[in-house]
Specification:
single chain; alpha/beta; 23 strands; 28% helix; globular
Length: 400
């Protein structure tokens, strides 16, 4: 009888977790199933490039899993029965039940469109490749009449969207709206560079007031001012799915699964959480910041932890530190903020095209990780039988 491991989510956390684990165990003793709503890998840090019409490589998840014994199920995880150890996977054509002995919860996060009235109805959020393509068409149409674009959110996502749109569509009037100064957590040198780049690109910045409501054609701010737009791009923060909370897992106030230093649920043994969906404690505080880097480090680590425990070994706890923040400001300007061990910004930064090359190298390195999940560990148990043909099942599904 095999031990069934199911990984929910095929993003920066779940994909490398499934593939790396499959390399470290005997497939006749441990089965690995990856459940994901999307057949293609969504490279979220490049969606703002797609939104301006740039060509971005799209890779099928099945291609990343080529020559592995990972079973791939395309569909949305809509229910978890912790007592029965099953997951319900649902799509437009029906549902199926997937059983597990060990579950890795890696459903990630989505743009928060519920906290502010009118966002879902009157704004666009870059949540996938199809939406990015639609935004690209809309931006081109608005640019023909020199229209107005409002970008809401002064975090990394909002900064990158505003700069990319302004560079590729110089006829557009781009305004970034944020309660706090964009990039206010960066070093003085980095903030100066960011402000200078925005000025060069023609991005107007409006700070000091929150968006109270997004209405058709304009934003209403807390101070009563209105900001008109032809297109509103919403980047006002992220939230995780409520599936973990609804299933009975212990979560924090943001619905991120509470885990220990081995990424295991504090309430349910045998359930692990990684990436944005996990509240991972450590020297950084109660949880890691959301982002692809969180998934890129917790995904491979949970595979090593599971491989160790399945082989009867004590796993090494998760250890991590931030070393940089990579910010693209169009294709000609970039900003790399290097960080101290306590996550405070160093005065050392990298800017311009060299910073763009640095970020591209970082993102491409993540994709290399998906293709080659690291050398086989010396202590792992080698497969002694041929790898079977990988199973792919499709439950046609809406977005997760």
């Amino acid at each position: 009888m095999t031990h069934d491991v199911v990984v929910l989510g095929g993003g920066y956390a779940g994909l490398p977790a499934a593939k790396r684990l499959a390399r470290q165990v005997r497939h006749d003793e441990v089965s690995v199933t990856l459940v994901t709503a999307f057949p293609d890998f969504v490279e979220r840090p490049r969606l703002h490039q797609m939104a301006t019409g740039q060509q971005v490589e799209i890779v099928r998840i099945a291609d990343y899993l080529e020559r592995t014994p990972v079973r791939l199920v395309i569909g949305s995880a809509t229910g978890i029965d912790l007592a029965g150890r099953t997951v319900t996977v649902t799509g437009s054509s029906g549902s199926q039940v997937v059983s597990f002995d060990t579950l890795v919860y890696a459903l990630g996060s989505n743009v928060d469109v519920a906290s502010v009235p009118g966002v879902a109805e009157n704004a666009c959020s870059l949540v996938g490749t199809e939406v990015a393509a639609e935004v690209s068409s809309g931006l081109r149409a608005v640019a023909e009449r020199a229209g107005r674009v409002a970008v809401c959110g002064g975090g990394l996502t909002g900064i990158e969207i505003a700069a990319e749109v302004a560079e590729f569509f110089p006829a557009l009037d781009v305004t970034l709206v944020s309660r706090d100064a964009p990039g206010g957590w960066l070093s003085d040198k980095a903030q100066t560079y960011l402000a200078r780049t925005f000025d060069h690109l023609g991005v107007a910045v409006r700070t000091g007031s929150r968006v109270r409501e997004v209405q058709s054609g304009h934003l209403t701010l807390d101070d009563g001012d209105r900001i008109p737009f032809d297109i509103c791009l919403w980047a006002g923060g992220f939230r995780v799915p409520t599936l973990a909370r609804d299933s009975g897992l212990a979560v924090n106030g943001e619905d991120r699964v509470l885990v220990d230093e081995t990424l295991e649920s504090v309430s349910h043994p045998g359930i692990y959480a990684i990436g944005d969906a996990a509240a991972v404690p450590g020297p950084w505080g109660c949880e890691l910041a959301m982002g692809c880097r969180t998934g890129g480090f917790t995904g491979p680590k949970v595979a090593d932890i599971l491989a160790a425990r399945l082989a009867g070994r004590a796993p090494e706890p998760f250890r991590y530190r931030y070393i940089h923040e990579c910010i693209s400001l169009g294709r000609k300007h970039g900003l790399i903020q290097f960080l101290n061990a306590d996550e405070s910004p160093k005065q050392r930064i990298l800017t311009g095209r060299r910073a763009i090359a640095y970020k591209n190298m970082t993102l491409n390195g993540a994709k290399i990780l998906f293709r080659h999940t690291g050398p086989a560990l010396a202590r792992r148990r080698h497969l002694t039988t041929p790898v079977p043909e990988r199973s792919v099942e499709t439950v046609r599904s809406p977005a997760e």
